[in-house]
Design brief:
With 468 residues, this protein is α+β, with helices and mostly antiparallel strands. The chain is built from 18 helices and 16 strands. The protein has helices spanning 4-22, 37-41, 47-52, 158-163, 169-174, 188-191, 218-222, 226-233, 236-248, 264-275, 284-288, 335-340, 343-346, 374-380, 391-395, 406-410, 451-456, 460-467; strands at 60-61, 75-77, 94-99, 102-108, 115-119, 122-124, 129-135, 141-143, 147-149, 154-156, 192-193, 196-200, 207-210, 213-214, 413-417, 424-427. The longest helix is centred in the N-terminal third of the chain and has 19 residues, at 4-22. The radius of gyration is 26 Å and the shape is globular.
Length: 468
C-alpha cells in the first residue's frame, strides 16, 4: 500500500492539473444566439419531454387532426337572434370545413350570399379556446374573428364578447383590418420564441418575420443558448465544474439564465414579459427587447422598473386590464400586477415558479400548491411561522375546513377572465389583500368582492350582525 501511495498522490495531482488546465473560464456577461429547443433536448433528456407535453410547448401549431380542437366538419355559425339587424342575419355568417387535409373558415361577404374562404395556417391554444390564423399575401398572419370555446364546444366571436360589442357580418370582416389582428406583429411576441420582425408597414398588411420555435420554448425563459451548448458539448470538465458551482456554491450555470439564480426583478421579468399585460403602449418596445440572461450589448434583462408603470386607475374598463372602483386589479391581464402589488412580493422573495411548474406550466411545482391545501398552507407558513400552531384562531375556521386555508381569504376568486369563452373568475395573487371584518365589508356595486361574503353568501350588513 505504501508503494501505491506516491502513485495515487501523483495521479491525484495530475488530475487536479488537468482539471485546472482543461476548465474553460467564461464571462458572466455575454450575448449568444438562439439554437432552438431541439438542441436543448439533446442534453436535457428528462426535462425536455416534460416541456414537450406542456401548454407552453403546444401553444402554436400547424393545423392537423391532432391540433385542431374546433368543429371543421361542415360546421356553420350564425349570429344570435338578439343580434339580428337585417333579414339576412338569420343565415350562417361563417362556415368551417376541411378539404384534402386543409382547414378553412369561410366568412360571408357583407351584402352578398357568397362566402370568402380563409385557409387556416396556424392554430393558437387548445386548453380553453382556440384561435385561427390565415396567412395573407403580404406575410401577415391574420387572426380570424371566430374562436372555438372548448367548454362551450362552439365557435364564438371572442372580441365582441370581451369588449361588449354587437357582432355582425360587417363587423367580423372589420376585425380583420385592425392593427392588432396582425398576429405575427403583436401576439407572436409572447406566443413564439425569439420573434424577429424584419419588415412591416404602417398599416400592418406586410410582415416579414421569423421565430426560433413555435410556442414558448426553452430559450424564451432561459435566454439564447448557443454559448451554453458550445461550452458543455465537448468538455466534460466544464460539466463537472458547472455542477459543483451550481449545486454546491449556488452560482449561475455558464452562459444560460436560470430564474432561481437571478435576482427578484430579473426572475419575475421572465414571466412578467408576457403575463404582465398592463403596460403602456409606448413601453411595449422595452418588453420586445427583453431577453433572459446577462447581456452586455444592450438587451434588457430586467423589466421590474416597468411592473407598476401603469396607474391603478379606479373603474378602468379597458378589456382584460379592468380595475374595481378602489383600483384593485380585476381583469385577467392584471393577474401578474396583483402579485406585484402584494407585500409578499414587495417584502419577501415570492416567485411564480414556487407554485407553478415552469417546464410543464399546467402542473404545480409540487402537489397541492395550486389549490387550498396543507401543502399551500405550508408554503405560506415558511414565512408566517408564528401562525402554524394557531390556524384556527387566525382564520376563525376549524383547521382542514373551507376558510382555514390561506388561499380562501388571501387569494379569493376576484379576477375576471374570458379565457374559455365563458365569463369566469380566478384567484387574485394580491396575497396580502384580505378583508378585516367588519370594517372592510363593502358590497357596493363595482367594489372589490369580499372574500368572506363570497363564501358566506350574505350581505355585508347581515354578516356584520353575525360577527358582532
Amino acid at each position: 500500500m505504501r508503494r501505491l501511495a506516491p502513485i495515487i498522490a501523483m495521479a491525484a495531482l495530475l488530475s487536479i492539473i488537468a482539471f485546472v488546465v482543461l476548465l474553460e473560464q467564461y464571462s458572466p456577461r455575454y450575448d449568444a444566439e438562439y439554437v432552438g429547443a431541439a438542441v436543448c433536448g439533446e442534453c436535457h433528456t428528462q426535462i425536455y419531454p416534460e416541456w414537450q407535453r406542456s401548454p407552453h410547448a403546444n401553444m402554436v401549431r400547424e393545423p392537423d387532426a391532432r391540433s385542431i380542437v374546433g368543429d371543421f366538419d361542415n360546421a356553420t355559425w350564425t349570429l344570435l337572434e338578439a343580434d339580428w339587424r337585417q333579414a339576412t342575419d338569420s343565415d350562417p355568417a361563417a362556415r368551417m370545413y376541411s378539404d384534402a387535409g386543409k382547414y378553412f373558415m369561410a366568412l360571408r361577404v357583407p351584402g352578398e350570399e357568397s362566402f370568402e374562404p380563409f385557409q387556416i395556417d396556424y392554430v393558437v391554444g387548445y386548453q380553453y379556446r382556440q384561435v385561427y390564423l390565415t396567412r395573407e399575401a403580404g406575410g401577415v398572419l391574420r387572426r380570424l374573428p371566430l374562436q372555438w370555446s372548448v367548454p362551450r364546444q362552439e365557435f364564438f366571436p371572442y372580441w365582441n364578447l370581451q369588449e361588449g360589442s354587437t357582432p355582425s357580418v360587417q363587423d367580423l370582416r372589420a376585425q380583420m383590418t385592425s392593427m392588432n389582428s396582425a398576429w405575427n406583429l403583436f401576439c407572436a411576441r409572447c406566443h413564439t420564441t425569439h420573434l424577429t420582425i424584419h419588415e412591416k408597414n404602417a398599416s400592418h398588411t406586410i410582415a416579414k418575420v421569423e421565430w426560433t420555435d413555435k410556442g414558448i420554448a426553452c430559450e424564451a425563459c432561459h435566454g439564447p443558448g448557443s454559448l451554453h451548448q458550445e461550452y458543455f458539448s465537448s468538455n466534460y470538465i466544464n460539466r463537472i465544474a458547472a455542477w459543483i458551482n451550481s449545486k454546491l456554491r449556488g452560482q449561475p450555470v455558464a452562459y444560460i439564465a436560470n430564474a432561481s439564480k437571478l435576482n427578484k426583478g430579473e426572475a419575475m421579468s421572465v414571466c412578467g414579459r408576457c403575463h404582465g399585460a398592463d403596460i403602456f403602449l409606448d413601453g411595449t418596445d422595452v418588453y420586445r427587447t427583453f431577453e433572459p440572461g446577462y447581456s452586455r450589448e444592450g438587451h434588457t434583462n430586467d423589466l421590474s422598473i416597468h411592473f407598476q408603470s401603469a396607474p391603478l386607475t379606479p373603474n378602468r374598463t379597458v378589456a382584460t386590464v379592468e380595475t374595481y372602483s378602489d383600483g384593485e386589479p380585476k381583469g385577467i391581464g392584471m393577474l401578474f400586477r396583483s402579485l406585484i402589488e402584494s407585500k409578499c412580493y414587495q417584502q419577501a422573495e415570492v416567485r411564480c415558479f414556487d407554485c407553478h411548474n415552469p417546464h410543464d406550466n399546467k402542473l404545480p411545482a409540487k402537489p397541492g400548491m395550486l389549490f387550498p391545501s396543507d401543502s399551500s398552507n405550508d408554503y405560506c407558513m415558511g414565512c408566517h411561522q408564528d401562525l402554524r400552531e394557531r390556524v384556527d384562531n387566525h382564520t376563525g375556521h376549524e383547521s382542514g375546513t373551507a376558510g382555514s386555508y390561506c388561499y380562501d381569504c388571501h387569494m379569493p376568486k376576484i379576477i375576471t377572465k374570458l379565457a374559455t369563452g365563458i365569463w369566469e373568475t380566478t384567484r387574485t395573487h394580491r396575497m396580502s389583500f384580505v378583508p378585516e371584518p367588519p370594517e372592510d365589508f363593502n358590497d357596493e356595486p363595482g367594489s372589490t368582492p369580499n372574500a368572506c361574503l363570497q363564501c358566506h353568501g350574505v350581505s355585508a350588513p347581515d354578516l356584520m350582525q353575525t360577527l358582532r
